[in-house]
What does this fold into?
Amino acid sequence: MNSGLLLLIPAILFSTTGELFFKLGMNRVGGFEFNASALRAVLPRIVFNPLIWIGFGGFGLGAIFWLGALSRVPLSLAYPILALSYFVVVAEAWLFLHERVTWLRMLGVLVIVIGVVIVGTSEV
Amino acid sequence: MITPDQLEFEEREAAARDAAKYHSPRAIFQAMLLLIPAILLSTTGQLFLKMGMNQVPDFAFTPDAVLTALPSIVFNPLIWIGFAGFIGGTVFWLGVISRAPLSLAYPVLAMSYFVVVLEAWLFLGEQVSLQKIIGVAVIVGGVILVGLSEQRKGQGQHE
It folds into this structure.
């Protein structure tokens, strides 16, 4: 197997797990309003939340592996594979956040992935 | 004796209580509204990064070439606007996931494909092939299915 394709595995796992930790962090922070005083109050709670930092760390690591993959395989192949992230995020939300995931939702995610593959393999 | 099954059940019950706290129908509705600025800001950020990088000559990924290109990237105001868009988009995204389940919000984020292709066509004059239009239409169809799955789940919640 092409080493660039193998690099896509940690790229997807790190960035999706980053998303998972973002959600865990925001579950702790809670919903906030979008006005100046509420944002000022909530900002330190977001910035100093270790779960949010782990999330950013996951994105950073994912980006490094993604760039490594891109230097080895063409974008028109790498990008559709990256679309598997949609499946992985939903699977992680089901496994670790115990969100209810119905068959209709999985079907919707499958259709999205197919659409990304169509966009990603178009030449122009 | 508590069996693993019971533990699992209690864990799921606790998760469901948390979900009820964060993911009320009202909170999910707000989350879908917040997704609009989240997507517009991050895609417009992407647009400005592209406009900025169109002004920077292509550079090879060698330390020398990157160092030479770096000033023209770092001091390009379009690049700054692009990053500001990303930061704004991230703030709204955090607002989204504090209100809605990740398994709903993340797939709906795929609407970005539609917006990026539209913006690239409108503002950058990029050519959009038929295949791309079909792909984007399929993505939008998938997002609609994911949205419907939330609605049906919501109706079944009081069983």
Remarks:
- The helical segments of chain A are 3-29, 36-47, 50-70, 75-82, 85-96, 103-120.
- Residues 3-120 of chain A form one domain.
